[in-house]
Amino acid sequence: MSLVISKRSLMAGSLMLLANLLFSAMAVAEQKETLGKWDVHYIAFNSTFITPDVAKHYSIVRSKYNGVINISVLNKADQKAQSAVLTGTARNLLGVSKSLTFKEVSEGDAIYYIAVLPFSDQETFRITVNINDGTDQQVLKFQHKFYAE
């Protein structure tokens, strides 16, 4: 009996593993805000935590100086993933602002949004994300300190 695993299913499996790790970390850290009709889960981490194949698939440059911001927007009532437009900025403590460009990723019933943020070692950002689904608009604000690993 031989086992053949396609590159696509390997990447999907890697991404699902990453998503599970991220959501497990979120459950422990409870990085969630209730904004209007949504529960918004968020996490920021170093891009080197992503496998090379997954990074390539989603056009993320792995670097110890690139952070990733991952956000999911869920309906507060039924916890179903919501499609929205996310835009944002990250401002460091010196006031230098960087625009965040979010890419929507859909996998099965899951929808999440990923943005890459270049940083210097031990740089702290105040992150502001505008979430808009066409009928509602909310603003998520949080702070994160990135470390080069």
Automatic annotation (TrEMBL):
DUF4426 domain residues: 33-149
Keyword Signal in annotation: yes
Keywords, sorted A to Z: Signal
Signal peptide: 1-29
Key word Signal present: yes
Name of this protein: DUF4426 domain-containing protein
